[in-house]
Automatic annotation (TrEMBL):
<dbReference type="InterPro" id="IPR032874">
    <property type="entry name" value="DDE_dom"/>
</dbReference>
<dbReference type="InterPro" id="IPR012337">
    <property type="entry name" value="RNaseH-like_sf"/>
</dbReference>
<feature type="domain" description="DDE">
    <location>
        <begin position="65"/>
        <end position="164"/>
    </location>
</feature>
<dbReference type="Pfam" id="PF13610">
    <property type="entry name" value="DDE_Tnp_IS240"/>
</dbReference>
<protein>
    <submittedName>
        <fullName>Transposase</fullName>
    </submittedName>
</protein>
Amino acid sequence: MITRNKTPSKYVYYALHLYFSGLSLRRASERPSQLFKRNHVSIWNWIQKYKPQKMQSRRRKVLEYIVDETMLKVGSEYIWLWVAIEPKNRQILTLSISKERNMFVAERFIGGLVKFNGKHPVSTDGGTWYPMACKFLGLKHHNHSPYEKSIIERTMQYIKDRTESFDDYFPCRVKNCKLSHVRNWLNMFLDYHNSEIKLVK
């Protein structure tokens, strides 16, 4: 939840909703101006303070893990974003970032999924780091079907569109950054995205 903020939480969530719907920070601050007046810096601060609900407070029914990774730019460096979704409800199961892409990172990422959701088949794009990671974890592995490829690619593009906006407005200038602000942002994105899917259904 939002802490140390005098603005009513319903207004905070409304502003965040506007932002994650694709508006810039300035536009997200202008739209609700008839209800309350806050500038784009206030919304940025809400993003930093936001603590997403524990989406994994209980196990969800999972048919399989559709996993993929993509490169993102944070400031002057590039990082890897790892994403896992569930094909039936299309919710994002988890997001993770790393500065390297290899079998050990893939194993750690998928292992986190298994620890909470149990063992299920893993679908990937055929990256060479996935089969061995799945073998070590005792999981069945296969390449994406056309349907699986379609939904994971749409999800990845949706995330990339949002993260590009984030880096344009607030590029990281910290040397040897620990990327905690990126993790906080992605956690809020995951919370919002999954909540929206539930509402649609």
